Amino acid sequence: MDLPEPTDDLDRAERDLREHGICALTGVLDPDLSVRVRNDLYAAADDDRRTGREVPGFGLDADRSNQRVWNVLSRSPVFVELLEDPTASHLLRSVLGWPMLLGNLSANITGPGGARGALHADQIFVPEPWPADPQGANAAWALDDLTTANGCTCFVPGSHRRNRSPRPGDVAEAVPMEAPSGSLIVFESRLWHRTGANTTIDERRAAVFGWYTRPIYRTQENWFLSLDPSIRQFASDDLLVLLGYRTAGLGLVNGLSPA
Q: What is the pLDDT of residue 248?
């Protein structure tokens, strides 16, 4: 099996996501917004490395050439615009419905010479056997051209149908998902994937990953402690739902959703 080709057709992307567990939609990110997001992300990454605040990726990274930037939502208001993109919301809702939670908003920057990461599925927190439907999904924003050479994320086609995490001894060929800068890649949480090896001499590539789950799960990032208060203060109703500040049934205060 192969991965679906990137497309500029939203209906086609939604069909790809339903059939393959992944889609790539080109031209979603406005060029001006893309520049602002990219500049602010690389500034945050350079600041983390300079000040020693870097945190590795839960054993998924083979070396420090691959850099994770956590809680980017609090690093610059520009990232709010990614969360409120209607195209991303449409595709994510087609997988998870509404309401859902934003578990995390982080970034992955592969550096020159970086080794490939560990193969995994993102819903490892769900006990096996897994439910028939995915419990989470990622929205990945390409801030640079994602190529095989610079370490684009690689996916195992059809692996979501195995409905379990990869195990030692599994035969699984991970295929690079190449996409131009400004693209949006959405994939469901059962699909096996890993960061690709960056075989370039001097090229970094960045992508921002929004991790979303059904509302019964705890968020990966503790927004109540880590979120910049200004983000919450001016958040839209939908963003408040994604962050867990507005809810129904779970997370109530005296029987009511927080204001």
A: 82
pTM of the model: 0.95
pLDDT one-digit tens code per residue, 56-107: 877 788 788 899 999 999 999 999 999 999 999 999 999 999 999 999 999 9
DSSP the chain: --PPPPBS-HHHHHHHHHHHSEEEETT-S-HHHHHHHHHHHHHHHHHHHHHT-----TT--SSTTEEEE--GGGT-GGGHHHHT-HHHHHHHHHHH-SS-EEEEEEEEEE-TTPPP---B-TTTTSPSSPPSS-SEEEEEEESS-B-TTBT--EE-TTGGGG-S---TT---PPEE--B-TT-EEEEETTS-EEPPPB--SS--EEEEEEEEE-TTSPPSS-HHHHS-HHHHHT--HHHHHHHTSS-SSSS-BTTB---
Q: What is the CATH number of domain 10-228?
A: 2.60.120.620
Q: For the segment 138-157, what is each residue's pLDDT rounded down to a tens digit?
A: 999 999 999 999 999 999 99
